[in-house]
Design goal:
Shape: globular
Distance between the termini: 40 Å
Oligomer: single chain
Structural class: mainly beta
Radius of gyration: 13 Å
Helix content: under 10%
Length: 111
């Protein structure tokens, strides 16, 4: 059964950093793009980052220059390094590929 499992969320102060991980199992990870979404309080889930199977990232405007996507195909894991975090980044973060979603991980940024 395909699984995407996220980890690395938590609570930080504004300006701090967190690194999220998304580990896949039973999945052709090395040939699949990975996408990161987030759901801010009171809002719909939104796409923020994508990374191709060969490691080329693309960022949405609110996170460009602060978030960095990467992946290690040998470990079936994608990463989202989040720097210069702001209180408005607070929400639940999900990884996705094709039909499959991770369970989400909470990120809380305090001012």
């Amino acid at each position: 059964q395909v699984q995407l499992v996220e980890s690395g969320g938590g609570s930080v102060q504004a300006g701090g950093s967190l690194r999220l991980s998304c580990t896949a199992s039973e999945f052709d990870f090395s040939h699949s793009a990975i996408y990161w979404y987030r759901q801010l309080p009171g809002s719909a889930r939104e796409w923020i980052v994508g990374i191709t199977s060969t490691g080329i990232p693309e960022y949405d405007d609110p996170v460009r220059g602060r978030f960095t996507a990467s992946r290690d195909n040998a470990r079936n894991t994608a990463y989202l390094q989040m720097d210069k975090l702001k209180p408005e980044d607070t929400g639940v973060y999900y990884c996705n590929s094709d039909l499959w979603w991770g369970q989400g991980t909470q990120v809380t940024v305090s001012s």
